[in-house]
Amino acid sequence: MSNFQLEDFAAGWIGGAASVIIGHPLDTVKTRLQAGIGYGNTLNCIRTVFRRESVFGFFKGMSFPLSSIAVYNSVVFGVFSNTERFLSQHHCREPEASPPRTLSDLLLASMVAGVVSVGLGTPVDLIKIRLQMQTQPFREAHLGLKPRNAAFGKQPAYQGPVHCIATIVRTEGLAGLYRGASAMLLRDIPGYCLYFIPYVFLNEWITPEASTGPSPCAVWLAGGMAGAISWGTATPMDVVKSRLQADGVYVNKYKGVLDCITQSYQKEGLKVSIT
To answer: Which family does it belong to (predicted)?
Structure first.
């Protein structure tokens, strides 16, 4: 009998759509702080975006991730759950018994989910970040460019998600859609390991043995704690990924992951890793 279960994909789809709707404004602020110039801190960034672009500025680039991240989350969570279930049952000698969860199975399933997430998520993140970043003031003294602002008085680089995709493919080829993939791979493989493994064990620890399954409160608590652990460790490489993907809207500044890390550290020091 097949161990493949569609409800894992359905749960991931619903969670992905909800996360985009609720989290996109803060994601816009995060991206501007990581790859933008002149925002200072979170509160100043929020005020600046609102003053220049109104409330709609926080939702720039949301249409594409809303239609794609739901599918992306669905696949990632479905791949993790079904891979972990397959590995657990492969080790279980009794077909009817509840297969035990081992750290090695969870680790391998998380790594598989991380690789899949890069394949699906890199173009999604790239388009989202390009649309979020094209309206912020751009200047780079070291490159001899004058300050300019694509949002005010000049035509933005991209007219929407479809135009953004077409422009990137035309100017950079299909490989351009995977700009920042190496940084995302370094972020997502350890990131998903540090999300799924704590989530599973925290869920089991919180849930009483007599219960048939975790309660919604247990799921929310375990998910929140696992998310904090995951993002706490993934943020430095997320900064690198955002800068590599924002790079190229007007000019190519970084040659790769190592060059981005080197330039960022030289200009901002260790504080760049917690931006």
So the answer is: Belongs to the mitochondrial carrier (TC 2.A.29) family.
**Tens of pLDDT along 88-141?**
877 665 555 566 678 999 999 999 999 999 998 999 889 988 887 776 554 443
Which amino acid, 10? A
Residues 163/169/174/178 CA torsion (nearest 10 deg): -60
Which spans in the chain are helix H?
6-35, 42-53, 63-91, 103-133, 161-172, 181-206, 216-246, 257-268
Count CB atoms within 10 A of the CB of residue 153: 7
Tell me how far apart the alpha carbons of residues 66 and 120 are, in angstroms, rounded to a whole number: 14
Contact 99, 109 (CB under 8 A): no
Q: Which amino acid is at 30?
A: K
User: In Å, what is the CA distance from 188 to each residue of 104, 130, 144?
Assistant: 18, 20, 35
Cut 0.90: pTM above it: no
SS3 assignment, position 149 = strand
Q: Which two tokens stand for residue 237?
A: 């490489």
Distance of CA 265 to the CA centre of its chain: 22
User: With contact defined as beta carbons under 8 Å apart, do 110 and 80 qualify?
Assistant: yes
Q: How far apart are CA 125 and CA 178, in angstroms?
A: 9
Select from 168, 138, 160 the least CA-distant residue to 60: 160
Compute the distance between CA of residue 92 and CA of residue 99 in angstroms, rounded to an integer.
Answer: 6
End-to-end Cα, the chain, rounded Å: 48
